[in-house]
Specification:
With 461 residues, the chain is of the alpha/beta class. It has helices spanning 13-22, 41-47, 51-54, 59-62, 68-74, 115-142, 157-170, 186-196, 217-222, 240-243, 262-271, 297-302, 308-314, 331-342, 346-350, 355-363, 369-383, 413-431, 436-443, 447-456, and strands at residues 26-31, 36-39, 78-85, 88-99, 102-110, 176-179, 204-208, 223-224, 237-238, 248-252, 273-275, 282-284, 288-293, 317-320, 352-353, 388-389. It folds into 4 domains: 13-117, PAS domain (Beta-Lactamase, 2-Layer Sandwich); 149-227 and 234-320, Rossmann fold, CATH 3.40.50; 325-402, Helicase, Ruva Protein, domain 3; 412-461, Homeodomain-like (Arc Repressor Mutant, subunit A). The chain starts with 12 loop residues before the first helix and ends in a 5-residue tail after the last helix.
Length: 461
């Protein structure tokens, strides 16, 4: 007599369906179009939904912020992805399934040992997220924007256009690129955009790309783990992008970003995630980026000094600020603004600028723009008598129009800009009696960069 061989208990689809039905993890499966084809009992209990009523519906009809259809479209898995349902946060895996090279389904899994534990851990995660928001708000007290659109003086059509562009930028989360000569107020605009945005309660982190030492730039931007290099803090240090979570990071002088750092910066701006120097953990940060430069990025791209893909990433919304010589009607209003900023209250409002002094201010081309004007007005205030700033209270060089290079002297744009830069540095050094620290401050550049330019342009140190 031949004994019957018992059938394998795991043969057939019934066993596996029964297994998944009773697993203590949530499972949902969508087809290639994002329509739900299966939900197990654990996940249905957690979401408090009816299984039969949900089958055949698009995932977003059942879970409004579902990403099953997105994974079905991209074909890219999402592992340990944060997700929120009914104000509760939890982690999920979303894994695409392929057959003969064609996507046939996406499996979503909530990785908890039970629906009850899932709810408890999700609640803890939500509490931690709330604490993180509180920490970032506290951090904003140390790293805050101090200027608003009301801080920007001027009445010209040009400055009004710049303000309109900046106001539009404040209402979005798109990257902003502010361009303008040194001293035109690019950082002022960056502050104002942040203050007018929905990120105003969170940090405003400033990064001067030209002033930061090249060998420390990566660790400053992305942070580092303990023991990453000699001299590193024993506990490690968060980077600028990490500190800017929920807020704004301002990349000033972006045109001076070293070429070898640009691909790393591009990756962070695209993915909003990075690793600390010496670390392996991927850190995500929700930041808004505002960049500024006084350089011609188009020219830098042509000469291979600036990546074109990075330019497209940072220049979502352009804001251009014209130099003072192109909006002379703003010079006197800005001068009065600086007076009231220097002398607070009734004392500042009582100061007047004599008509002859106003004409002298308006005739001058202001190569240092508003920063130079501020410096001049501060000095004039302490020379003025009887509450009136007169021509004799202003620097003598204001009566001499700067001799900018003519077209015949520089046949190319780069040659003209080099000659103009040389002239501006020469005039500024003369104005401050050769004091390079004061000259760098007036020009709005770091002192080390001024030294490099003096050497490059062959100026007398």
């Amino acid at each position: 007599m031949v004994e019957a061989i018992p059938s394998n208990p795991i043969d057939g689809a019934g066993f596996f369906k029964n297994l998944v039905d009773h697993m203590e993890i949530g499972v949902i499966i969508g087809d290639a179009e994002g329509k739900i084809v299966y939900i197990n009992q654990t996940y249905a209990r957690f979401l408090d939904i009816d299984i039969q009523a949900s089958l055949g519906k698009h995932a977003t009809q059942v879970i409004s912020n579902s990403r099953l259809h997105i994974v079905a479209k991209t074909g890219m898995a999402e592992i340990n992805h944060p997700h929120r349902f009914n104000d509760t946060g939890f982690l999920v895996h979303r894994v695409p399934l392929f057959e003969n090279g064609r996507l046939i389904a996406v499996v979503g899994m909530v990785l908890f040992d039970s629906a009850t534990t899932a709810a408890q851990l999700a609640q803890k995660l939500a509490q931690l997220e709330s604490k993180l928001v509180d920490v970032q708000k506290e951090l904003a007290r140390l790293h805050s924007a101090t200027f608003t659109f009301d801080s920007i003086a001027g009445k010209s059509g040009s400055i009004k256009k710049s303000l309109r562009e900046a106001a539009v930028a404040a209402d979005t989360s798109m990257p902003v690129l502010i361009t303008g000569e040194s001293g035109t107020g690019k950082e002022l605009f960056a502050h104002a955009i942040h203050q007018a945005s929905n990120r105003r309660a969170f940090p405003f982190i400033r990064v001067n790309c030209s002033a930061m030492p090249r060998d420390l730039l990566e660790s400053e931007l992305f942070g580092y783990e303990k023991g990453s290099f000699t001299g590193a803090h024993p506990k490690g240090k968060p980077g600028k992008f990490e500190l800017a979570h929920l807020g704004t990071i301002f990349l000033d002088e972006i045109g001076d970003m070293p070429l070898d750092m640009q691909p790393k910066l591009l990756r962070v701006l695209e993915l909003k995630e990075f690793e600390r120097v010496g670390g392996v953990k991927v850190i995500s940060s929700d930041f808004r980026v505002i960049s500024a430069t006084n350089q011609n990025l188009e020219q830098l791209m042509k000469t291979g000094q600036f990546r074109r893909d990075l330019y497209y990433r940072i220049s979502g919304l352009p804001v251009e600020i014209a130099p003072l010589r192109e909006r002379r009607e703003d010079i006197v209003p800005i001068a009065y603004h600086f007076i009231e900023k220097t002398l607070k209250g009734p004392a500042g409002k009582a100061i007047r600028i004599h008509p002859a002094a106003q004409k002298a201010l308006e005739r001058y081309d202001w190569p240092g723009n508003a920063r130079e004007l501020c410096n001049v007005m501060q000095r004039a205030l302490y020379r003025a008598t009887a509450g009136v700033i007169r021509s004799e209270d202003l620097p003598g060089y204001l009566g001499q129009a700067p001799d900018f290079p003519r077209r015949s002297e520089a046949t190319t744009l780069s040659g003209y800009m080099r000659a103009a830069e040389r002239l501006l540095i020469e005039q500024t050094l003369k104005q401050v009696g050769g004091n390079k620290t004061k000259a760098a401050d007036l020009l709005g550049i770091h002192r080390t960069l001024l030294y490099r330019k003096i050497k490059l342009l062959g100026l007398k140190g």
